[in-house]
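Project standup — Tuesday

K.O.: blocked on the structure for the chain from last sprint. Re-posting the sequence here as requested.
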Amino acid sequence: MELIGQFARKELSREELYTFSLILCDNEIDRDNEKFTVSALHTLAKLFVGKTGIFDHNMKSKDQTARIYSAEVMTDEARKTADGEVYTYIKAKAYMVRTEKNKDLITEIDAGIKKETSVGCCVRDISCSICGKNIKTEGCEHQKGKSYGGRLCCYLLSEPSDAYEWSFVAVPAQKNAGVIKSFDMSGEREKLAEMAMEFRQELETDIIRFASSVIPEMKQAAVEEICENLSLKSLREMRDALRENARKNLPVIRQLDVCGAEVNNENSEYKI
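H.V.: unblocked you, prediction finished:
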């Protein structure tokens, strides 16, 4: 909520927002036989924070759908790219405000219909993976998509200078770019937090009650201050210890008792 708050002009509640995760781009060779370098991904992760999501790279404000509020570079050590590198990608988190207008879009994202994404950015350097020459300034005789000595030629995209936007598209250049399936725990977290708070209050109430019996000299304010600095586990242990101490030292004294058997009349079982 704090990260999203940087882009909103008013304070938003969790109920107003819809969030989802997506893979923006990676270091895999794409359909255009190009790939981002790992260093480029680290730069892009910073540049894409705050960037808007649109449709099909259509640069019109009416097509703005969401905004990225967080992005980080991730690696999958168990996976290799086509040219043998450890698979590395940018995982971003985006948000949108729930409205009647985007209700169908949210349903389509959850259902996996709107999934594939593509990025719009600018890089300063495009080089050949075979000879390393700068394609913009020098050019070379190698053709991307062809193999040379067992090595696949592709163009390496590095030194990003800007990130414009990201888009929902039907066919992304990067095969792995798209919305990540995830379980939103935000509502569940709130329920668990409420339950924990209620349990804590019950423990503190019991501790104050038992302490007043076992340690009557201690003021309630002091007991409350001690409770504030204890974990749930410590509070429970303290409650149990005080309760057991109270049971041993302050046995329950029966104030009323049943009359003895010597009383013999039809109402004897009701007499006390």
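K.O.: great, moving the ticket to review. The beta strands are 17-26, 34-36, 52-55, 66-80, 86-97, 117-128, 147-148, 151-152, 155-168, 178-180. Residues 2-182 form one domain.
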